[in-house]
Structures are given as C-alpha cells and as structure tokens.
Design a protein that fits this description.
Layout (H helix, E strand, L loop, with lengths): L2 E2 L9 H4 L6 H15 L4 H16 L9 E5 L3 H13 L3 E5 L2 H10 L4 E5 L10 H10 L7 E6 L4 H9 L4 E4 L2 E2 H39 L25 E8 L2 E9 L3 H18 L6 H15 L8 E9 L4 E7 L5 E3 L5 E3 L3 E2 L13 E4 L5 E3 L3 H4 L2 E4 L2 E4 L1 H9 L12 H16 L10
Parallel strand pairs: 2-3, 2-4, 4-5, 5-6, 11-14
Antiparallel strand pairs: 1-7, 8-9, 9-10, 10-11, 11-15, 12-13, 12-16, 17-18
C-alpha cells in the first residue's frame, strides 16, 4: 500500500493561500510531482482506490451533491496532499490551518466530515488543541463527522478523542486507500444517523400533533361559570391530560397525570383519554366512571405496573352549584372561596392502573358565586428552586395564595378565568426561574 507522509510539494504563495480551491493547472503540476516522487510505490494502488471511490460516488453511496470535507491541518504540504487525494475522489474540500478557523468554517456552512490534525503549531505532541475543538463541537446541533489525525498517536489520545465525539483515528503517515475508506465510511454513517434522527423528529412532531388534538381546543361555554385550561409539557410529549365534557346544562371536569414523562407516558395518556371518552355519560357518577376507567387501565397499562395514573373527575351542575367528584390519587384541587374559605378537595382513593377491583367513592361540595377552583398536576406545585442548598417547592400554600389574587385579563386573554390561570402559572414560573422539571397542566 502507498503511504503519504510529509510531501515536498510546492509551497503556496500568499495569493494562493487566500484561496481555498486549488487551480486545475496547479493540480496537474502536483500530480506530476507526486508521480515523480512516488511512482514506484503509490501510483497503481492510489489510482485504483481513487477509481473505486469515483465509482461509489457515482452510485448510491453519496448523494447527488458532492460531499463536503473540511481539512484542519497546519502544514501546507499536508493540506495539498489531502486536497489532491480527496478532490480526486470527488469530494469538495476546504482547508484551514488553525482550531479557530475550523470552528469558524463549521459555523458558516455545513460539512459532512472534518478531517483534523490533533496537533497544531502551539502544541505538537499532546493533542490538546484538537481535543478542545472536539469538545466545542459537541454543542453544535449539526456538527460533521470527525476523523482525527496525528503523527504522535497513542492509545490514550485516541480514546480521549473518541470520547469527545471523533468517529475514527488515523495515524500519520497514512495509507491512501485506508484514509479514503474511512472518509467514505464515516460520511455514509453520518448520513444514516441523520436519516434516523430526522425520522425520529418527524415521528415526535406527529406525536405532538396527535397529543394536541387529544386535548380540548375549546372549552365549553356554560352560563354562570368561566373555564380556562392550559398545558405545558416538560418534554416534546407528555403524560398530562385534561378535558371538559358538556352534558346538557352540566359539565364534567377531569385532569390526570401519568407517572413518568415522554413517549411512554404520552401513550398511556392517549389510552386514558379514549377510556374517558367512551365511558363518560351524564348518568354515570364520578366513582363509577373511575371504576370503569381503572378496569380498562389495568387491562391496557404496563404489564409490570411500572406506570400508573392519578386522576380527578367531577361533574358540576350550575343549577344547584353542586360539584360531585371522585379522586383517584390525584393532587387535591384547590378552592379559593369568595367568602374567604380555602379548601383542598380531599376524597382519597387509589391511583388508576394498579388494583382492578378498587371501589371508588363519591364526594360533593357546594360552590358559591365568586369561588375559584384550581385543578392542576403536581408539576405546578412541585416547581422548585434552590434555597441555600435545599430544594424549595412552590407548594400548595403559594398556589392558594396566587389563586386568591386578582388578575386583570389582557387583550390576548378571553376571560378573567384565563387571566387567573396565566397569573398562577406565572407565579410558579417566577419561583422556579421558569425551570419546570415536570409537565404542568
């Protein structure tokens, strides 16, 4: 196999150094020079490898547009050799000679691969400059595949580079065929990774849209009461759920929280939503609805009971101002009364999804004009901040205080209930510096 080490190629002039593409006549002179120096050991194997790479490039291995490679190398003769080798194989090549230039070029355009020396002029043995570049590239969303090179290779240095995101390691002097194979392989691997990532992103976007449609786009309008609801997931999709279902002049209110976050919780939430929709009728009381939904949840939930659901369901009749409800292990709704009473709607029963034979109980409360009732998931009350090394939650007391405060609707808010909802959430957000760690509904 042929080897290219430190080639004695013509040095760039200042004018040529300012250009990143090598003129055709210069490439011809470089080819002639390479043949003169290495005809016995490199011409045949290199040409075969280049021809093979060109055939692959014309096929399906690379996309219709040329793959773009950035070479990070401080020695101009090495830059020239890599530009010739990679350019002849069909790649578009840019070359830079410092870590700062590498980061600048990657920030300005997209590259499929970065072929980078770990050692630059300031430091010739430890690889610290190259490792620093790798560390800084980790924060970029669309960073290229990285293959590192050094003439001072060691196992420890290679391991460090791989831990920081390098996909492969080439030691100088390199074999042309091996280098081209590594470049081709890592570009294709990156494209496959990008394809998987894009497919997952599309799936997540689809899941977000599906989940959004499962939640009420508009809440019912019933004389005598104002309703408002909001949903703020901690991740792309979540396990919180709420709904308001109208039965003639009465309205059913429900809220739930699947233990856990992300896609598994979102799937359980969709099952719960379907179960409530097919079960809720105006003649089924809250305890019976919880019993039926619990039976379905135990049947369709996680087989090892690793996930379960807290759930509150109540039916309000404006004619009597009576709220009948059942609570399956959910955070008790908070009542801030117009007459000064503050209550938690306790009616303790088991969560959904664990015990299929659990018998739930009905509870009741009479509401008064001006009362404010807050149904919420625990992500709101548990919003926390660090206080002298101790996590301090927002808590029920602060929630009740915020619920009792006045909130004037803005132009974007449809009602005083909507204004109050955003006021309460804003109070919690201020407490935790908007760093919610759980879904908030």
């Amino acid at each position: 196999m042929s080897r290219l080490n430190y080639l004695s190629l013509p040095r760039r002039t200042n004018a040529e150094s300012a250009k990143r593409l090598i003129p055709y006549d210069r490439i011809s002179r470089m080819v002639s020079h390479l043949h003169t120096l290495y005809v016995d050991q490199c011409s045949q194997s290199t040409n075969r490898q280049i021809q093979k790479s060109q055939r692959l490039l014309r096929g399906n291995m690379l996309s219709e547009s040329k793959s773009r490679v950035l070479v990070g190398e401080d020695q101009s003769e090495i830059q020239d050799a890599l530009e010739l080798l990679l350019g002849s194989a069909g790649y578009t090549v840019d070359s830079v000679s410092s870590p700062d230039e590498i980061l600048k070029f990657i920030g300005a355009r997209q590259y499929d691969l970065l072929l980078m020396d770990l050692n630059f002029r300031r430091d010739t043995t430890s690889g610290s400059e190259g490792l620093d570049v790798l560390s800084r590239l980790q924060g970029l969303a669309l960073s290229p595949a990285v293959v590192v090179m050094t003439a001072w290779g060691s196992v420890d240095l290679a391991v460090k580079a791989m831990h920081l995101g390098a996909r492969d390691f080439i030691q100088k002097p390199w074999e042309n065929s091996h280098l081209l194979h590594v470049v081709e392989k890592q570009i294709e691997s990156r494209r496959q990774d990008q394809s998987v990532r894009l497919r997952r992103e599309r799936e997540i976007q689809d899941a977000i849209e599906v989940q959004r449609r499962l939640l009420p786009a508009h809440l019912p309008e019933i004389p005598g009461i104002e309703l408002a609801g909001g949903y703020w997931p901690a991740a792309d999709v979540a396990g919180d759920y709420f709904d308001a279902i109208q039965f003639g002049g009465r309205i059913a209110l429900c809220i739930a929280d699947v233990i856990g976050k992300g896609m598994p919780a979102a799937l359980m939430m969709s099952n719960l939503q379907a179960a409530v929709k097919v079960t809720a009728t105006e003649w089924i009381d809250p305890a019976e609805l919880c019993r039926r939904v619990n039976t379905l949840t135990c049947k369709n939930g996680a087989p090892d009971h690793a996930r379960f659901i807290s759930f509150f369901y109540g039916v309000y009749d404006p004619a009597t101002r009576n709220l009948a409800y059942a609570n399956a292990g959910h955070s008790p709704p908070l009542l801030s009364g117009a007459n000064g009473r503050n209550l938690k709607l306790e009616c303790a029963d088991a969560v959904l999804g664990l015990w299929p034979d659990w018998q739930f109980h009905n509870c009741e409360i009479a509401l008064e004009p001006g009362d404010r009732l807050l149904l919420y998931t625990d992500g709101l009350a548990e919003a926390s901040r660090d206080s002298d090394g101790v996590e301090e939650e927002f808590g029920e007391e602060r929630l009740l205080a915020a619920l009792g405060e006045d909130a004037v609707p803005t132009e974007a808010q449809k009602s005083s209930a909507d204004a109050l909802l955003h006021h309460v959430v804003r109070r919690a957000a201020d407490h935790c510096h908007s760093k919610f760690t759980d879904d908030v509904t």
